[in-house]
Fold this protein.
Amino acid sequence: MASKPKTIFSEERNPRGIPKAPFIANVDEYMSDESSDTIETTLRAFQDAIAKYRYMEANLTQRRSSLEEKIPDIRKTLDVVEYLQERREGTSKSKTDDEDDDDDFEDEEEEEDPLNLKPITTTYELNDTLFAEAELKESDSVYLWLGANVMLSYKLPQAQSLLTGRLEAAQLNLQNTIEDLEFLREQLTIMEVNTARVYNWDVKRRRDKRVADEKEEEEKRGR
């Protein structure tokens, strides 16, 4: 009858629920049943555990790459929104520069634009290698991509709050992902060491058994 596989993962887990791999300090005690079936079952269970850890590692590595690509985009978008908001509040450098213009035109500009804000000339990306120039008129709202081909309009303060929250969440997610990857690498190392220790223990046990059998056979022949 096949032996039941030993419990590999311990009850202890990291904050995201990844189980910890216990280190087998005493192989003799752990492998109390020396049958070949038990040893094969244990080694197979170890390999299954390693495969699960590697699967989680691959997923987290992909998530880390996605977050490292997404965070700069969020930060760049937030910087633009903050700049637009500062222009409207009159706290940006461009606003300060505008106030130094010729006083002869000040009254006329204030009648046309109470905030005294000129259109912004900028470039926007059409594809990876092609950019176009555009003139942006003053506005108190922006359009943000939310994913899945969805774009919504937000007032500047709302957009700033939304992007700030998303940036903080993405940075925290990235930090947790990096911690989980380090934790997984430790568990993989432990499981690989456990596998090597049990395998070497089995090789030594078989060799000792073979030597003992040969010695017993020689003693029988000498009688």
Remarks:
- The two ends are 38 Å apart (CA to CA).
- The beta strands are 120-127, 130-136, 141-147, 150-155.
- The chain is about 60% helix and 15% strand.
